[in-house]
Write a structure and sequence with these properties.
Helix content: 10-25%
Radius of gyration: 18 Å
Number of helices: 4
CATH architecture of the largest domain: Roll
Number of domains: 2
Largest sheet: 19 strands, mixed
Structural class: mainly beta
Distance between the termini: 11 Å
Length: 302
């Protein structure tokens, strides 16, 4: 298939295993079609990725309203993360994707090096602010902290979450992180699903009552929780809408920490996912996600 709407050179990157095809479109010439996104993200016939990211100017993103473009300008975001899921659908936000995008922008001289000014990045969920922290153990070499904004949480344990083909169910909590999530904490006495490591998340979970839009589904185990230190550690897996199970999901990690804070009162979490480790700080008005970004390769399309 032709990929003429994509530039000749693109990049492969990931944030804790959540992987992307990413490129810079300075002049608005390379807006991909849904078919092209599906092709390039295909793990057998394309490069393979959980999604595609085009870093461009807000005015070159065709689905944005005038109000959204003005919002970017008012938020001092000269650049926009045009993110699409692997199935070609548009996505509001991707926390891991913001880090990978900022690393590419940094290497292109668009964003400043560690210690420099924060990078303002437009997304369909509003302007996000990223800070470059450089190497930071135990999280990685090129670490960024992104302010995701507040997590809007619903009533705890309102939803019943099931995985077709797996016995048992879990109680889920809805969290809006600019995109929809349902978070199930499995070891809180309200779940009968297998342990986190044993879940079959190739199968898309079913959430009842049905949420109007498709949602991401997170399954979480609390590993440690120190209320005196206001710190905890947890393990999470996620089935991400538009691409299935991913090794990490930035907004899902934010939604997980928001839910854990509501259940335990603890605000600072190290969360292990299949792709590594991230840190999440939760306050009433912001969720800050800290983790690494990696650019794997520069790819020439033929």
């Amino acid at each position: 298939m032709s990929v003429m709407s994509l530039p000749q050179y693109i990049y492969k990157g990931h944030g804790t295993g959540n992987d992307f095809v990413v490129y810079i479109d300075r002049d608005g010439k390379f807006e991909p079609s849904a078919d092209e996104v599906r092709h390039i993200c295909d793990r057998h016939f394309g490069i393979g990725a959980d999604g595609l990211i085009r870093l461009t100017r807000p005015e070159y993103v065709s689905d944005l309203t005038t109000e959204q473009v003005v919002q970017c300008r008012d938020g001092e975001a000269e650049w926009f993360m045009d993110y699409r899921n692997a199935d070609g659908t548009l996505a509001e936000m991707c926390g891991n994707g913001t880090r990978v995008t900022t690393l590419l922008a940094q290497r292109a001289g668009i964003a400043e090096a560690p210690g420099g000014a924060p990078f303002k990045l437009g997304t369909r969920a509003g302007v996000k602010t990223l800070r470059s922290l450089g190497a930071l153990e135990p999280y990685g070499k090129d670490v960024f902290q992104v302010s995701l904004g507040p997590g809007n949480i619903g009533a705890l344990n309102t939803y019943k979450v099931m995985i077709p083909g797996t016995d048992g169910e879990a109680a889920g909590t809805f969290v809006d992180m600019g995109n929809p999530h349902v978070v199930s904490v499995l070891e809180d006495g309200k779940a009968s699903l297998p342990a986190v490591e044993d879940l079959n998340l190739i199968v898309k979970p079913v959430v009842n009552p049905t949420i109007e839009t498709d949602q991401n589904a997170e399954f979480v185990r609390i590993d440690t929780c120190d209320k005196d230190a206001d710190a905890g550690r947890a393990t999470m897996r996620v089935n991400e809408r538009g691409c299935g199970e991913t090794l990490s999901c930035g907004t899902g990690l934010g939604a997980t920490a928001v839910t854990l804070r509501a259940k335990t009162g603890v605000s600072h979490w190290d969360i292990g996912i299949r792709g590594g480790l991230v840190h999440v700080d939760v306050s009433d008005d912001d969720v800050r996600l800290t983790g690494a970004a990696v650019i794997v390769a520069k790819v020439e399309l033929l």
